[in-house]
Design brief:
Length: 367
């Protein structure tokens, strides 16, 4: 039962994100005076609907997205409200608004994640003089140091519990002569103890070592909703760069005939599977963890949907924008029939790609 509801919730999340994309097209097109034939929430059979000011609105059975159909979108129409009769700038804004609404949703969810302290700040790394690892066979292990021991003093000198303390401790160890020992005062479960040990020179690293690794990590953002906004833009920018680099490397691999690593590219089935697993894990731990996973997936998928739709490929918003730029530069539209054929071919190729990825997703799930 939990699996069923998690899968259903994952489908709803995916559907809401796609609907937000289509709503962006709808609201900007509507406000620009472009005629809208129908705006639908969901896909498949219609549950109910109504009509207002010449536009049909419907709620459909499958909670996986939605669509917005404009007058004269892919064919020539004499209707003055038709998209093909509108100025280039109106059509440009209408097409661009879909990805922009996805970026807006990603921005809102990023602010929630940052202000809520749900994600780490990659620029807030820290290291403390607490042992996260004690290597067997090394001086620290032989002297009796243990994981979670906190070093408070070295040869009587207080060690601050921050990165400066770790640096000072490393300096003291490095300054010891061959065979010279250091007396460490440690805090072990609230009790103080003293341990003496002599570091050992490691030829591989070219320095004296005692065989420990200190705890390190990252802190969450210390922001409210307002101060989280610039941090959210930075997070989005960093994620966009990572996605573009991934896509570039993917294209290079394909052109070189190297193929794609298993699981590197995921379709709707793989996304829903991963998302539902994360939701089950989150809600089984704490309710807040489950809510965090929902917001996290809103951010990731919405941002990636915006990026993917801006790619200059036929049938995608980026492809349509490319034709509008052509029209704006040369002051004449690209031949409608040829553009429609290009988009049709591009749509067909996208369908084939989706089928291939879906088969790969199912194969991965089975294996």
């Amino acid at each position: 039962m939990a699996t069923f509801f998690s899968v259903l919730l994952a489908l709803v999340v995916l559907g809401v994100i796609i609907t937000v994309h289509e709503f962006g097209h709808f609201i900007v097109g509507k406000k620009s005076g472009i005629g809208v034939i129908e705006f639908a929430v969901g896909m498949g059979p219609k549950i109910f609907g109504w009509e207002r000011n010449g536009t049909k609105y419907s709620l459909r059975a499958i909670p996986l997205g939605g669509y917005c159909s404009f007058v004269g979108e892919d064919e020539k129409s004499e209707d003055p409200r038709a998209m093909n009769n509108q100025p280039v700038w109106k059509r440009f804004l209408t097409v661009l608004s879909g990805p922009l609404f996805n970026f807006l949703l990603a921005l809102i969810t990023a602010v929630i994640l940052i202000a809520g302290g749900f994600i780490i700040n990659p620029y807030s790394s820290y290291t403390v003089p607490q042992l996260g690892l004690v290597e067997e066979g090394m001086p620290a292990y032989e002297a009796g140091l243990m994981v979670d021991d906190i070093i408070t003093h070295a040869d009587g000198e207080a060690i601050s519990q921050d990165e400066e303390g770790v640096t000072r401790l490393q300096t003291i160890i490095a300054s010891l002569e061959e065979g010279e020992s250091v007396l460490l005062t440690i805090d072990r479960n609230g009790e103080a103890a003293e341990i003496s040990l002599a570091p050992r020179y490691d030829a591989e690293y070219g320095k004296k070592m005692i065989g420990v690794a200190f705890y390190s990590g990252y802190e969450t953002y210390d922001c409210n909703v307002i101060t989280a906004i610039p941090e959210a833009f930075e997070l989005m920018g960093r994620t966009v760069v990572e996605t573009v680099v991934f896509l570039k490397d993917l294209v290079v691999r394909l052109f070189r005939g190297q193929g794609v690593e298993q699981g590197a590219v995921t379709g709707a089935v793989g996304i829903v599977s991963t998302m539902s697993t994360d939701l089950i894990t989150g809600f089984s731990s704490r309710f807040s963890d489950g809510l965090y996973m929902i917001v996290y997936w809103f951010f990731v998928i919405s941002l990636n949907l915006g990026i993917m739709n801006l790619l200059p490929l036929p049938a995608l918003d980026g492809g349509r924008i490319l034709f509008l730029i052509y029209e704006g530069i040369f002051r004449k539209p690209f031949p409608r029939e040829k553009e429609a054929i290009i988009h049709l071919i591009g749509f067909g190729l996208l369908i084939v790609l989706m089928i291939v990825i879906t088969v790969s997703d199912i194969s991965n799930l089975i294996s």
